[in-house]
Amino acid sequence: MTLGRADRQGDLFDEAARFCEESLPENSIYRFLARERDRLFPDELFADLFCDRGRRSVPPSVVASVMVLQRLGGFSDREAVEQYSFDARWRYAAGVGGYAGSGAGAGGFVHTVLVDMRARLRRSARPDRIFEVGLAAAAEAGLVGRRRVVDSTPLYDAVATMDTITLIRSAVRGLLGVAAAADTDLAASLRGALSSGDDYAGSGKPQIDWDDRAAREELIDSRARDGYALLALLDGRELAQPVTDAATLLATVLGQDLQTGPDGVFRIARRVAKDRVISTVDPEARHGHKTAARGFDGYKGHAAMDPDTEIITATTVTPGNAGDASVAEDLVADLLDDTADDTADDTAGQKQPQQPVEPQQPVEPQQPVEPQQPVQAGARAAEDTEEPCVYGDNAYGTGEFHDRLQRAGITDRCKTQTPTAAGGLFSKDRFAIDLGADTVSCPAGITVRIHPAHAGGGTAYFGSACTDCPLRAQCTSAAGGRTVSVGPYEQTLTDARARQTDPAWVADYRGTRPKIERKLGHLTRRKHGGRRARVRGTARVDDDFRLLAAATNLARMAVLGMCGTTQGWAVAA
Q1: Residues 1 and 80 in one domain
Q2: pTM of the predicted model, to two decimals?
Q3: Could you tell me the maximum CA-CA distance found in the chain, to the nearest angstrom?
Q4: CB of 127 closer than 8 Å to CB of 65
Q5: Is residue 475 classed as helix, strand or coil in its secondary structure?
Q6: What does DSSP assign to residue 425?
Q7: pLDDT band at 457, cuts 50/70/90?
Q8: Alpha carbon 76 to its chain's center
Q9: Which domain holds residue 479?
């Protein structure tokens, strides 16, 4: 398929376009796309996705505009194509004119065009180009500074969470299916190893008396033995990759939910595995907890945002059980790279003192192109005059992330949780930890040495000193006495807790960090493709979430009055 190109000439007498221009507000996303579409999404931006032979595609600039409006509205592919075909605003934004238009794609297209475009982008070297061009335009207009607020939100998966018996049967059925496609002799051998009498043809549960505990246990045991028999038969064989993947999934499902009793019978374990697979249809989805009392199944969408303009600067998606801080550095990678470049420049200046001589600098005021600045009314101060700063809640207040920000010279506004202890006992902050002397002193005045750990930090054991201590009832209920763990970033966390007691720190945090909650609300306000994922798998959910962020950014740019000029992007006065 070759690259299709949009008709940029336009029709001056197009009634639909004239109606939209007169009716829609200036800061509407439709008018913004109609005005800036060719600058943001020129067809040439997508040239690498097509070859030089075959029929012409629907112009990528048209498809990209439809994809943006689709994500903003929370439409399915079929609904988006229907909107494009019958909503004059969509046609105006896509630049195809009214219903008398004759350009490529003007008469509508099938929903599989959107599926094909996403697949082409996913396979390309720049799968996130729609997000990237919008962010680059915002940065050029001065809408992206050096402050970031980070947070995450649950993204419910697009599949049903399976119970243990459904997981096992589904995994066995999947293995038999891929084996039949790869090797009929292997499939026959696998079916010969089954002993439960279940043909695994359907997805429904076997018909038993579910109120009968013995019947339930026999069902679990028989299907588990089928699964282990299949794995034993495959052990040591050279297998095709699909068969290997299916066997690995079956082994994971069997190992996470089952345990063997003293009588040798397989039963459901009374626990939840740490990284439990919850569906064979989407093996990457996980149980997650946004809070201790609020659980969900699926993924987490993580985002970083400029708090002054509410432009999203980075996104990523992880399984639901991943910690927020695990991807914190990825969200602020641009700041880390900038500070690394600044440090390199400073170091170079120190090694060659002749270079930063001030008499050479009077020309600097003429270097930034000043004609852009008056147009950027309301824009923020220049990026390089603003101190980098990161805001985050308790989930980002880990010692490792604090330390990374400190080493990068980035102002740290990530909140650190205060130590707590169960039952109202003395918390860790009641103990005096002296890292210089490697000692810990308890509230009763007893001082013990810290026993170092291989990974850093260590543990202080009070042991027998607690036996006759008058504060024992307030400190510990352990028979061996109180122990205090000292982490490798103990001093970093202590310093962070001290900083967040400053009233100025608190005021800045409270006035800035909550802004991302509103932005996450914008991202997830549509159920389809917002709070609930439209696709399966971490990679595809990640791509879809980033496209949603790109569409939200473009809508925000329209509200802020961003426009293209002969000198680049700017915010209109």
Answers
A1: yes
A2: 0.86
A3: 94
A4: no
A5: helix
A6: P
A7: confident
A8: 21
A9: 422-489
